[in-house]
Amino acid sequence: MAFSNPQPAAIRALLKKVHSIAVVGLSPNPVRPSHGVARALRGFGYQIIPVRPGVDEVLGEKAYPDLRHLPAAVDLVDVFRASEYVDGIVDDCIAIQAPALWLQEGVVNPAAAERARQAGIFVVMDRCIYKDYRALML
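-> structure tokens emitted (138 positions)
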């Protein structure tokens, strides 16, 4: 069975209830897509928590090396990492009981996405959260 994304109404409902977003792979480089998307999400009112090893902060927020080091629960994990890293990220999402996982455009791992869904996680794959927010919420 192929993975399919939730319907737009379900994605809209998710975006309405989310407050905190852990952004895995958030780059400190302002020209990188992850930086621009996270900055825009913060402008939309979301709390952004950078998850990136080797940096102390991004966008003025303390960064954490991985999801398991987050000091508090988050509503959504947004992933800007290559597809081959998604299996480990799903392991971490399951471990921290993340309620939702968003794999950005180009991040595709149907088996890992389905495993996350089977663990009760709301999953969106190969879509840009910024584009969906603009299309569904504005």
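The helical segments are 8-17, 33-43, 86-96, 110-118, 129-137.
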